[in-house]
Predict the 3D structure of the following.
Amino acid sequence: MSRHTTTHRHPRQSVLEVRVMSPRLAWLGLRKLIGWVVKLACLLAVLGGLGWGGWHFIQQALNNNPDFRLRVLTLNPNPVIDELGVAAAAGIDLTTTPSLLEVDVAAVARHLKNLPAIADAHAERHLPGTLVVTVTPRIPKAWITSPGAGLTAVRQAGAMLVDGAGIAYPCPPSQLATATTLPVIELPPSPAQPITAGIKINHPALEPCFTLLDAAREADPEALQWIESVRQVNAWSLLLVTRQGTAATFGMGDHARQITSLRAALDHAGDQGYLIETINLIPKYNIPITLREQPAPPPRAIPVSVKNSSAANETRRSRDLTTLPKRN
């Protein structure tokens, strides 16, 4: 009995057709894909062009709209800068009345923060035409001098002040009235710790002077009115000079007790009509004192700044820029 087997064979013609048609089909598919990609790219280019053109048209329409011109600059009350100063610092040309939409508020805040007398700043657009600026001024704690480094000017605009964080900055003219009565901290020259505007003072003698002034003000709220200067003499003592010229030696600690002793000695000297030349407050008992030979002069008048309690200083002020005088 013979066995028949079935063998599946592809006709030769069919095999050859597959071999010939496969590259052609691949090429046709690739051409079709390229065509779709080109069409999609053209569509995206058209949409992008229309979008950019529309946005550009809108921007031009808004920027050229007189309703969006910068007309009012609102600034919070502060003793270091006015509206014209803000515009100058931010590079805003008020003579051209720029569009408020063209004002980079982030750049305005950044330029203001770069001013040494300003600790922080913020700017906002309030459409249609108002720029709102808020600055945080530095609050001075004392004047800073370093005679050996050529820094000697005090109690005048441009002289160096230092705030509670130890940041040095030149006194703005508008802050001079409130800073006049502040004491002077004298620092020895230190090439490694130069005094630079806008930079924190890292001089090791600054902190002990701060500590003594803080203790003096805590013991006597009027202390800053009768303290002329403070400086560190050596590793164990500080020298405080009063407005009447009394040189008082303090230790590096126990300042509350020493301030109390100094006030008692000055009050007694005033009652008795003599003037203390020097006093060493480091000892607790038998405090050494030297007297001046001439009688004590009458107390020197010390200008005291008077706070203006008017509503204009308590609230944010707004200025119409068309009324501001132009600075040369």
In short: The chain has three domains: 19-64, 68-137+313-323, 140-291. The two ends are 123 Å apart (CA to CA). The CA atoms of residues 257 and 284 lie 8 Å apart.
